[in-house]
Specification:
By secondary structure, this protein is an alpha+beta fold. Helices cover 33% and strands 33% of the residues. The chain folds into three domains: 176 residues, no CATH class; 53 residues, no CATH class; 108 residues, no CATH class. The strands form three sheets. The protein has an eight-stranded mixed beta sheet. A six-stranded mixed beta sheet has the order 15-14-13-12-11-16.
């Protein structure tokens, strides 16, 4: 999905210290939520986090490097690139430290053994799990900073490590938008539930995916709320989503081989994004701008006929005709410019399609 591509664009990952993976870790250690951290340490961690993000705001990459753990600076390019990309988005933002979590990796961890940290309150009302495939012994903290008051507010997650000199240094840097299409993750979660109640699983599924992306600040953090969200989403996963199998959309007089569906905010508003592999005759028609537009609109109408809930869930539709890895035609239209249709049907076929 596009949200995955956004994440790759915005995240700076430090492979020397933290390499995020999906294997289940087997090593446990201590973890402390923000309310359990002593006030002087909370203030110290908050000040360090704000100082680091302020360096990003000011474009002080040298200062950011100097504030980074020595063992990490050898792979600092990822942080530098992410910070430079993020700067114009947050340079006028107000900064708030939203979350602090402390965790300590003890000695005795075997090489290649994962580290998992369970954080909870005495009444079990809050449960958070941090999972890493590898983590050297030491004292760490996760600080999540919200940069708001700008057109594209961001959530910036920092892994801090305590040095032998009792200084907190940057050991990991991650950033994500707080909103997509002008809405936050809780809004998408609520709207997804509304679509479920209407039996409209396609818009519900994509809204759940956006909600999960926005609500979860980093891949290595999970919580009871995130688990609940993902469980809700899996219950409505559409069976006909293109992936290993393409999605054949039959319109009046033509058939379209849809290889991928996605979401897009390329033009600011939230659009639904469709890729298809044109047949030889369709590719020939795409050389004529008038015929190309007609073809794209026919596919748009057919998709909306198959899944009418998409019409209210998205601002518009993108259609991309691709030949191999090359795009040979693209068109975006708002929903009110796409005519209705009732003659389309859609089915999943066994033909395997190359991944994108």
């Amino acid at each position: 999905m596009q949200i995955e591509r956004i994440l790759k664009r915005w995240v700076g990952i430090l492979p020397l210290v933290l390499t995020i993976a999906f294997a289940v870790p087997t090593y446990g250690a201590d973890c402390t939520l923000q309310t359990q951290i002593p006030a002087p340490q909370r203030e110290e961690l908050s000040n360090v986090a704000r100082s680091l993000v302020s360096k990003v705001q000011g474009g002080d990459i040298a200062g950011l490097r100097n504030a980074t753990l020595a063992s990490v600076t050898a792979s600092f390019d990822g942080i530098a690139n992410s910070a430079q990309t993020l700067k114009p988005q947050i340079e006028q933002a107000g900064l708030t430290v939203d979350t602090l979590i402390g965790f300590a990796a003890a000695s005795g961890q075997q090489e290649g053994q994962g580290a998992q940290f369970f954080c909870g309150t005495a009444d079990s009302s809050t449960t958070v799990v941090l999972s890493f495939p590898s983590l050297p012994p030491g004292q760490y903290a996760l600080a999540i900073v919200h940069a708001t008051g700008v057109s594209k507010p961001q959530q910036i997650s920092l892994i801090l490590a305590k040095t032998p000199e009792n200084q907190w240094k940057l050991a990991g840097f991650f950033a994500k938008p707080m909103m997509l299409g002008g809405q936050n993750g809780l809004w998408y979660w609520s709207e997804a539930r509304q679509y479920v109640q209407k039996g409209q699983n396609w818009p519900a599924w994509f809204y759940y995916q956006i909600a999960a992306f926005l609500v979860d600040p980093v891949d290595f953090l999970s919580s009871t709320n995130m688990d609940k969200l993902r469980q809700e989403a899996e219950k409505v996963r559409p069976q006909d989503l293109p992936g290993e199998k393409s999605w054949t959309v039959n319109a009046t007089g033509d058939t379209f081989n849809v290889t991928r569906v996605d979401t897009s905010t390329a033009l600011g508003s939230l659009d639904f994004d469709i890729d298809y592999a044109p047949s030889i005759s369709q590719a020939a028609q795409l050389r004529d701008p008038v015929e190309a537009r007609k073809q794209a609109i026919m596919l748009m109408t057919s998709v909306l006929s198959a899944h009418p809930g998409l019409r209210s869930a998205f601002h518009g539709l993108w259609v991309h005709a691709n030949s191999g890895n090359a795009s040979i035609f693209a068109l975006e239209l708002p929903m009110n410019e796409i005519p209705g249709g009732t003659t389309a049907t859609a089915s999943n076929v066994e033909t395997l399609q190359p991944g994108k």
